[in-house]
Amino acid sequence: MKLNGLIAATYTPLDPHGDLNLSAIGPMVEDLLRNGITGLYVCGSTGEGMSLTSEERRKVAEAYVEATAGRVPVIVQVGHNSVHEARQLASHAQAVGADVISATCPSYFKVSSVAALVDCMAELASGAPDLPFYYYHIPALTGSTIEMADFLQRGGDQIPNLVGLKYTDTKLFEFQHCMELEGGRFDVVWGCDEMLLGALATGARAGIGSTYNIAAPLYLQIMAAFEAGDFAQARKGQSLSIEMIRTIGRYPFHPAMKAILEMQGFHVGGCRLPQGRLSPSQSDSLRSELSAIGMDFGHAASLSLNP
């Protein structure tokens, strides 16, 4: 299979006590689909998968699958420090109707060899043998810096349902090499929002990102301009994305993103510790700073290039 377009790394809504607020998922899904999102990536870094209990992760996966109702692919991230637990999460994702599974590697005990990474991913992916599996490469959080081409070559022989990567790093040369490996055998999806244009120029067909939740129109404009050969307009759009992300990055990133979703009217709460949530004064400052670069906080927060 091949993923295409903008895939939102979804947020997990919490109530004021920090418990799941599953009732917010339906409206969030409808807004994402209305804004042109072509897939959902559930319980990843953005969705605080590693801060949720396994039972909570199952409930969130079920809620997103149900709300999406087959309209776009739902990718469930099942990575866990316990590979056995990850395998059970993969089995659950398949049972409830997810379209794809993905997983980070264990990160407490570091995975230091290609063979160990393949063994870990083979075990967990076997829990959902009927679903395509994408390894989630995010070395900044897992500490695993194994060459992805080496993993794909060995993993492709030993993991029957391995189809590609979610590549969340900045090494465009490695990204391109992985895409071209074995005649383009693997589907490699870009995961760094502020470098989407560079990835498109390298051959990316899809991106998975956090800020697609709040600025999908901007990223669709970047993609359309690139496809039309209007590289000046595409660069202008990417520059605006960078400015937006730099603004959000002056605050704790995911709590700030959740604050923006609250400004949209979605009851997502804050983040689980250790991330926490923004103070009211921080939220006010963030809103002012984003308004200054053109973000609209009407029915749905959005940022786009002027016509």
Automatic annotation (TrEMBL):
Pfam families: DHDPS. Keywords: Carbohydrate metabolism, Cytoplasm, Lyase, Schiff base. InterPro entries: Aldolase_TIM, DapA-like, Schiff_base-form_aldolases_CS. Signal peptide: none annotated. It is found in: Cytoplasm. It is an enzyme of class 4 (lyase). GO terms for molecular function: N-acetylneuraminate lyase activity. The keyword Cytoplasm applies. Its main location: cytoplasm. Its EC number is 4.1.3.3. One of its GO terms (cellular component) is cytoplasm. The active site is at Y136 (proton donor/acceptor), K166 (schiff-base intermediate with substrate). Pyruvate binds at T46, I208. SMART domains: DHDPS. Belongs to the DapA family. This is N-acetylneuraminate lyase.
